[in-house]
Every structure is written in structure tokens, then in C-alpha cells.
Specification:
The chain is built from 5 helices and 6 strands; from the N terminus they run αββαββββααα. It has 206 residues and is α/β, with parallel strands linked by helices. The radius of gyration is 17 Å and the shape is elongated.
Length: 206
């Protein structure tokens, strides 16, 4: 699906803060009238990137679903939104390779939000996300040296759930009943990440 071998080895996480866990303590954001409905995570063509530890599609589906439930299940609006998430590719950094070559952990997904009330999609094109691991202590060394594969997956899943929350926040005006035509016209734009689009083309040999 995604040519992760080309795409993900070039990405490095430089964030200096504590590694997140499954627990969500951030304040809730203004997501309009959002309440989470179905949270469906699939991984039919998941691709493991280079120099990566192994993780099964089922493990990824479970980790991402749990992170989304933990973060977005906090909201109690009355606009039921279903999420469809496709896990496309990943790198879970591992030790045992030279530090200068050690990749950081990366996860690539696509998300579609469904409006239960209208019975259709909010975003016609899936929203692409590439999320990077959060590195602890300001270290530039990948978490392959400090975390297990399961901890790395929890780290990435936490980050991707937060990115989805940010995306819903950006489109919060359209998650209400009184959105204007002007607001509706501005929602759910810029869904495609050109890096993923190029990765798909490379994978198909185009």
C-alpha cells in the first residue's frame, strides 16, 4: 500500500518530552457536538518499513483502536460520528544498528469520519496522517534502544489519536447543527498528504 521503505526512513522525531501512555489527561477540546460512535480500525495491506521490529496487523488494530477510544471517548455531544481508520504502514525502531542509521518509529494511517445523522461521509477523501514517535529526555536516539515494541506502538497510537482529535477540532464548526454554508465549504479540506501519495505511486511503480 505505502512505500514505507522510501518514505519513513527519512523522518526523525525531535520532540523533547515524556513518552505518552494510554492514559489521557489533556483537557478536552471544543469539538462542537461530537460524540464517538463506531471506531473501526483495519489494516488490510499494512506494510512494515525497513529496519523495523515486527508487529501484526491485529496488534496495530488493537493499539490504535484503544488509543482512539481513550481520547475521543471522553466527549459527550449529540452529533454521532463514526471513524474508519486504515493503518497503512509503520516502522518500529530497533536496537543493534549504528546510531546514525537508527530510524525513529513512524506510523502512517488514513481516516474517514462518517456523519451518522446524514448517513454519509464528512470527508469524501480519507485524511492522511504520518505520526512520529515522541522521544523522551530530549534524546535524538530512537526508542528502539529504550522501549519495547509494545511501548512504541502505544506511543505512536497515542500520538495518532491526538492528531485525529486536532483534525476534528479544526473542523469543529461542521460538527454542529448551526454551521453556515461558508463554514461547511471550508471543512474537511487538505486531506491528502503528498508524501503518502508519492509513496503509493512508488509502490505501484508509477
Amino acid at each position: 500500500m505505502f512505500r514505507i521503505a522510501i518514505l519513513l526512513t527519512a523522518l526523525w522525531a525531535l520532540v523533547a518530552c515524556a513518552v505518552p501512555t494510554a492514559e489521557v489527561s489533556d483537557p478536552q477540546r471544543d469539538l462542537g457536538d461530537f460524540v464517538l460512535g463506531h471506531n473501526i480500525v483495519v489494516a488490510p495491506e499494512i506494510v512494515k518499513g525497513p529496519l523495523s521490529r515486527e508487529a501484526s496487523a491485529e496488534q496495530w488494530k488493537s493499539a490504535v483502536k484503544a488509543a482512539i477510544d481513550a481520547r475521543l471517548g471522553r466527549y459527550e455531544g449529540d452529533r454521532l460520528v463514526h471513524l474508519g481508520v486504515n493503518v497503512g504502514g509503520y516502522v518500529l525502531a530497533q536496537p543493534g544498528v549504528p546510531l546514525l542509521m537508527s530510524p525513529k518509529s513512524v506510523l502512517g494511517i488514513s481516516v474517514t469520519a462518517w456523519d451518522d445523522r446524514a448517513g454519509g461521509k464528512f470527508n469524501e477523501e480519507p485524511k492522511d496522517f504520518i505520526v512520529l514517535e515522541t522521544v523522551s529526555g530530549g534524546s535524538l536516539v530512537g526508542t528502539g534502544y529504550t522501549l519495547s515494541a509494545q511501548e512504541q506502538m502505544a506511543n505512536l497510537s497515542y500520538n495518532v489519536a491526538k492528531q485525529i482529535e486536532d483534525w476534528l477540532y479544526d473542523n469543529r464548526a461542521c460538527l454542529t447543527d448551526n454551521a453556515t454554508a461558508e463554514q461547511l465549504a471550508k471543512c474537511w479540506k487538505d486531506n491528502k498528504d503528498e508524501r503518502l501519495a508519492q509513496a503509493r505511486r512508488d509502490n505501484l511503480g508509477e
